[in-house]
Amino acid sequence: MTKANVTNVTIRPEEAAHFSSLAREWWNAKGPMASLHQVNPVRLAYLREAMDAHWGGAIDAAKPLAGKSALDVGCGAGLVCEPLARLGAKVIGVDASAENIGVASAHAEGMGLYIRYLAGELASLNLGQFDLVTSFEVIEHVADKRAFLEQLAASLKPDGLLVMSTPNRTAASRILLVEAAERVGYVPRGTHDWNDFVTPDELADLLAQAGLTMSKPRGIAWRPGKGLHLSDDMSLNYAITARKL
Predict the structure, then answer these.
(1) How far apart are CA 35 and CA 29, in angstroms?
(2) Half-sphere exposure of 10 (CA within 13 A, CB side)
(3) Do the beta carbons of residue 235 and residue 168 sit within 8 Å?
(4) What digits encode the pLDDT tens for the residues 33-70?
(5) CB within 8 Å of 194: residues ≥ 6 apart
(6) In a designed cystine with 187, which of 11, 23, 48, 181 is the match (CB 3.0 to 4.6 A)?
(7) List of domains in the chain
């Protein structure tokens, strides 16, 4: 892959505006963000497996992240931040949308959770380094993917763990995740641009340029009767972990 020009700007104003318009519906599991509510248990299952493999310890521990710090980048209204806090982590959530951050903060307060939420460009926030960095379904929305991954890498402690998921750029994802999903309203119109999807090989290359080594990806697939689940099928979506080289 040819190296792209790197900037410090990863936020696309039009993307931030799109998700800001959905902020108040983010926690409505039957609303326009229903697809995120449906995929979130699958993402969290992958995250728990990755955490247990990385840090060891009792796999049935109620708070495996106790004493650890976690950063969720592109946090939306907190669908991942809140479970991370319940697992014992000290959590910071960052998002491009101030409206999302307002909804996330109010929801966490209502749940009795302390989570620090901030809006803006990650590189400008000077948050330091974290044991765990997560970013689910975000890289396909950023302006400069290499710069974004370099920001994630800079936020990771030397022995930390990065966990991500993103749609794959395949014929199947174009038909099902973009054309069909948006046409029937499963995903709000204008959410995805298929050309911005990243293949696993492209992501591994970009992560390596940022000083990270990527695990073997796991697919997030769907089938009738089973719904969304972790799979070897990566034609729609996949999840990865990465660590510093």
Answers:
(1) 8
(2) 24
(3) yes
(4) 888 999 999 999 999 999 999 998 766 778 999 999 99
(5) 169, 173, 174, 177, 178
(6) 181
(7) 13-244 (3.40.50.150)
- The distance from CA 6 to its chain's CA centroid, rounded to whole angstroms, is 21
Q: Compute the distance between CA of residue 180 and CA of residue 197 in angstroms, rounded to an integer.
A: 16
What the block records as the tokens of 218 is 């796991």
Distance CA 179, CA 86 (A): 36
pTM of the model: 0.91
Which string of b and e fits 157-167 if b means at least 16 CB within 10 Å?
A: eeebbbbbbbb
Q: Are 91 and 72 in contact (CB under 8 A)?
A: yes
